């Protein structure tokens, strides 16, 4: 058996102000100064950090919002003078999809590379929009051998990108007929994508490429953004080719393993030229996430393109349609259409947009994707609050993810830590579902429960009236 894939995190505290969710309220005038006071026993040292502010009024009030809401002090105080409050600045971050809890979780994972544990537990709804309406099957969680990252069984998270023939043909003496497929084996079912809006510039693009090299995955970038990158990182680069053609990437084609084209009428001709420059290249086409994309995929499949990158919007919905659906619905439609056409196994589907948590990665694969592309979550790991510039130029200038001098080693390690935490959580999900390799998860809707299906079965008679 090959060596287990492991991402080694290194604790890297964020160089930006973390916005905490909870703060402690202390009605000190009623304090009895008990000898067994609960404050010194706080496992997170919240009250000790607050003491610095109490002694010096000029000290930052940030520690006042470092409470983890374990509620131990609230329950243990004999006088009942302690309480927990919500930070209004925390609630103002992000939007309806990129919620404050997602950003706080991403920051914590990027700090340590560990699976986050909150004293307050999960307080959200068990249903909602998009991925929140899917429950994964955890029926195998009671088996000790399926215990995720701590289990005794090897769980593979490797995926293949590239043309996969439907069958193999051999000669009478056992030799393979035809050429072997040029496949890219990734140890993690994700690649690093270009953000939906311009942040960080060339510094962030270079850091993304270095991160991909460390993770042994791929990073999509424009050629100008990674100019001057080390030759050792080139195999992990996927240059994006737009309407400008191959002029900017001509020198990169012999060094990379995969190239991606923005969809257009000239794609077949550009793909043929790229293949002539490097016969081992894996060709991919970037398409907008739409249900109608299935027909375009079938058309390009006949032209020899086998890899497709489907990009949704920031919230993981269709683009360019009046009533956009979420990834989970669109991918199930596209996957089913390709299965019906008998070509699904020879095609690789990468889906992007709205992949904010590791559970989204697993759920997108369940809905029919082979792997996902991560973009906005990488920015959040560096301190981005997903304001998309609406807070003005001054905020953009001081945004941690868009700093003019974004230190590469710091940014790389933060993103590596985030992916380490995501990988661990993917192993936990696969182990709990009793699946030993992520390839088997693709399209396995029987291992998930969809809220719409449950409501239809339970209330079908009422809904039809």
Keywords:
TIM Barrel, alpha/beta, 8-stranded parallel β-sheet, 2 domains, 465 residues, 13 helices
What is the CATH fold-level name of the largest domain? Answer: TIM Barrel
> What gyration radius follows from the Cα positions, in whole Å?
25 Å
H-E order: EHHEHHEEEEHEEEHEHEHEHEHHHEH
Q: Helix- and strand-based class?
A: alpha/beta
Overall 3D form: globular
| Number of structurally distinct domains | 2
Helix content: 25-40%
Mean residue pLDDT: 85
The CATH architecture of the largest domain is Alpha-Beta Barrel
CATH class of the largest domain: Alpha Beta
**CATH homologous superfamily designation of the largest domain:** Aldolase class I
> How would a textbook summarize the main sheet?
8 strands, parallel
How far apart are the first and last residues' alpha carbons, in Å?
A: 57 Å
Strand content: 5-15%
Largest sheet, spatial ordering of strands: 6-13-12-11-10-9-8-7
| Oligomerization category of the chains in this entry | single chain
In the predicted model, the low-confidence regions spanning at least 5 consecutive residues are none
DSSP summary, beta strand count: 14
The number of helical segments is 13
Structure, explained:
The protein is of the alpha/beta class. It folds into two domains: 22-86, no CATH class; 159-456, TIM Barrel. It has 13 helices and 14 strands. The protein has helices spanning 46-55, 72-76, 88-91, 100-112, 201-215, 267-277, 293-302, 327-341, 358-366, 376-381, 393-398, 408-433, 451-463, and strands spanning 22-26, 82-86, 134-136, 159-161, 184-186, 190-192, 219-221, 237-241, 258-262, 282-288, 307-311, 348-352, 371-374, 448-450. It has an eight-stranded parallel β-sheet. Strands 1-2 form a two-stranded antiparallel ribbon. α9 (358-366) crosses α12 (408-433). The protein starts with 21 loop residues before the first strand and ends with a helix.
């Amino acid at each position: 058996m090959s060596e287990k894939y492991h991402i080694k995190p290194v604790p890297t505290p964020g160089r930006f102000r973390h916005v905490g969710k909870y703060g402690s309220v202390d009605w000190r005038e009623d304090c009895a100064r008990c000898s067994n006071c609960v404050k010194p026993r706080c496992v997170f040292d919240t009250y000790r950090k607050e003491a610095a502010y109490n002694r010096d009024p000029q000290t930052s009030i940030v520690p006042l919002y470092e409470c983890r809401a374990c509620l131990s002090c609230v329950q243990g105080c004999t006088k009942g003078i302690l309480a927990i409050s919500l930070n209004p600045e925390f609630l103002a971050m992000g939007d309806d999809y990129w919620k404050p809890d997602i950003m706080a979780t991403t920051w914590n994972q990027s700090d340590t590379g560990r699976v986050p544990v909150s004293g307050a537990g999960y307080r959200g709804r068990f249903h909602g929009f998009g991925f929140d309406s899917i429950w994964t099957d955890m029926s195998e969680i009671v088996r000790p051998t399926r215990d995720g990252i701590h289990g005794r069984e090897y769980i593979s998270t490797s995926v293949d990108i590239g043309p996969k023939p439907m069958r193999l043909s051999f000669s009478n003496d056992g030799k393979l007929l035809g050429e072997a497929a040029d496949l890219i084996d990734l140890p993690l079912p994700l690649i690093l994508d270009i953000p939906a809006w311009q942040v960080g510039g060339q510094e962030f693009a270079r850091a993304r490429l270095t991160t991909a090299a460390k993770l042994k995955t791929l990073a999509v970038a424009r050629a100008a953004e990674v100019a001057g990158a080390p030759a050792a990182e080139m195999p992990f680069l996927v240059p994006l080719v737009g309407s400008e053609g191959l002029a900017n990437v001509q020198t990169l084609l012999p060094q990379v393993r995969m190239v991606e084209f923005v969809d257009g009428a000239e794609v077949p001709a550009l793909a043929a030229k790229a293949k002539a420059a490097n016969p081992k290249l894996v060709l991919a086409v970037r398409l907008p996430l739409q249900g109608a994309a299935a027909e375009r995929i079938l058309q390009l499949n006949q032209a020899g393109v086998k890899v497709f990158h489907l990009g949704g919007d920031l919230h993981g919905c269709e683009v360019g349609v009046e009533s956009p659906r979420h990834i989970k619905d669109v991918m199930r439609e596209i996957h089913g259409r390709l299965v019906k056409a008998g070509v699904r196994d020879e095609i690789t589907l990468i889906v992007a947009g709205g992949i904010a948590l590791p559970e989204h990665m697993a759920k997108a694969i369940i809905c029919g994707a082979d792997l996902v592309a991560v973009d906005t979550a990488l920015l959040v790991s560096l301190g981005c609050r997903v304001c998309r510039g609406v807070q003005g130029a001054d905020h953009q200038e001081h945004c941690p993810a868009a700093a003019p001098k974004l230190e590469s080693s710091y940014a790389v390690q933060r993103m590596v830590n985030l992916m380490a935490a995501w990988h661990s959580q993917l192993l936990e999900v696969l182990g709990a579902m009793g699946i030993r390799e992520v390839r088997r998860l693709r399209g396995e809707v029987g291992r998930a429960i969809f809220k719409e299906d449950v409501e239809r079965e339970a209330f079908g008679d009422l809904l039809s009236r």
